[in-house]
Amino acid sequence: MPKSRLFIYLIPIFFLLGIYLGLNLTELFKNSDRLTAENKFNEVFEYTKQYYYKEVDEEKLVEDAINGMLENLDPHSIYIPSDEQVLIDEQFKGRFDGIGIEFQIINDTITVVAAISGGPSEAVGILPGDRIIEIDEESAVGFTNIDVVENLRGDKGTEVKLKVFRPFAKRTLDFLIIRDQIPLFTVESALMINDSIAYISLSKFVETSFAEIKEALRQLEAMGMKKLVLDLRNNPGGYMEQAVKIADLFLDSDKLIVYTKGRDNTISDKLEAELSYPYEKIPLAVLVNHGTASASEIVTGALQDWDRGIIVGETTFGKGLVQRPFILPDNSVVRITISKYFTPSGREIQRDYENKADYFAIVTPNEKEGENFNHTQEVDSNETVYTTSKGRQISAHGGITPDFIVKNNDLTYYTVLLRSKDLFYQFVLKYLDKNASTLFNKYNNLKLFKDSFDFTNQEINSFIKFADENGVKFVKDEFEKDKHYILLRLKAQIAKNYWKSDGWYSLLLTADKQFNKAKELLEENHKLY
């Protein structure tokens, strides 16, 4: 065969060989660059271990390096040490093993705030206000929060002995408690506001949140619920799949709830409503504020884009990044942002995070109170405009801007100090130590207490004096400005002691501007419906 013809036949082979070698060499160089970077890190680590003039904590050195590695990424790509991850896992699984109390350390003493419903402490008769003075026959006075957790939590089925002082009875009591699995409820309150409007407060999105809210809706429906206020204020988010399931409760099947985009800007995941529920037509108002974030914004954004609920409150936080946890050999975790999420209309909820120092600060956007149903406040002709299912125009500024912007009244500095020092709870604790039996005999149900109980002038003066003795000096004009709120919060604290979260919310909501606006819109059958 002539050489020229042989050469022609070999050209395609050389061409394919070149492509193959090119691709593999590129990959080889990539791997080489990666190995060079890893070698560089390992060398610095070894030099530091061997030659630094003092002994170094190798584990801390590695953790600091990991944190430094993530520092210049987004604010949500983080490293979590193994001991912290254990506590996070408990919170998001919605349960732990223990005796089932909420507590505070007051004057070096473990004070029971509440016994968790259905838990072993409630079963044996532990009451709010009880002081735990011994655990397993050892003094518990002077315990820190960590000491309490370490001594009261334990495996299901194990025993713990408590000696408790009960102030209003002026006696000590001994309890033997068998530890059990304790649920951490995220539906903080589910109650009927009137004959037709119900209220649900959801604190975060954990493994049990969908089941909790579905059960709450079932019970409220049986009590006559026709309309609903869903409170997502200060809800920091949690599991995305729980947010999708909860949004599904209120949206028709096949409606898009959220989608995500990864590194190559293609859609990584697309999540839609799948099941039918009896709540898909119920008039709905959603309460939000600057602490409403992440999974809460998924629910809020989907409901707003489908014109399925009236959004009331203040612009949400603006956290629209999705993290994936990677478990390391020592059970520590690194959470890496892998994508962004978008509302059904295409809005990107993540706000700017260039200045990380300010990112987590709660900064109030420059927004005016009032109706924003057509979103004239944030729509700008220079920006991309998105459209809801009924044609309302909205834009993406970071976070979800409400349809009705309502700000709760600012508290005076005097009241801020009362809250920051936890003086409402501490005063009520002392008050109930003296008055608990008489009070409950007189007001044996929440409605009677709510309608009839008031503090006397002497009791109000006692609170002012108590605050003064605890470092909050009386400021007359500030007290008068906030007097209704101060007395209402004290009353709500008593109600919480007897009727738990329902008592707390049923009182505080009466002075809540955002809630009252949502209630008014539902009562007036707003045009969205």
Average pLDDT number? 89
Beta-strand portion reads 15-25%
Strand order of the largest sheet: 10-11-12-15-16-22-19
Q: What about the largest sheet? A: 7 strands, mixed
Give me the secondary-structure category: alpha+beta
Low-confidence stretches: none
Number of strands: 22
Q: Give the number of helices.
A: 15
As a percent range, the share of helical residues equals 40-55%
Task: Give the termini distance in whole angstroms.
Answer: 85 Å
Query: What is the CA-based Rg, rounded?
Result: 29 Å
Shape: globular
Descriptors for this entry?
529 residues; seven-stranded mixed β-sheet; six-stranded antiparallel β-sheet; 15 helices
Q: How would you explain this protein's 3D organization?
A:
This protein has 529 residues and is an alpha+beta fold. The chain has 15 helices and 22 strands. The protein has helices at residues 3-51, 58-71, 82-93, 120-124, 145-152, 209-222, 240-248, 295-305, 356-359, 413-420, 423-442, 446-452, 457-469, 476-508, 513-523, and strands spanning 78-80, 95-98, 101-106, 109-115, 131-135, 138-139, 159-166, 171-178, 180-183, 187-192, 197-202, 227-231, 256-261, 267-272, 284-288, 310-313, 321-327, 333-342, 370-371, 385-387, 393-395, 404-405. Strands 10-11-12-15-16-22-19 form a 7-stranded mixed beta sheet, sandwiched between helices. Strand 11, helix 6 (209-222) and strand 12 (227-231) form a beta-alpha-beta unit. Helix 11 packs across helix 14. The radius of gyration is 29 Å and the shape is globular. The termini are far apart. The model has no long low-confidence stretch (mean pLDDT 89).
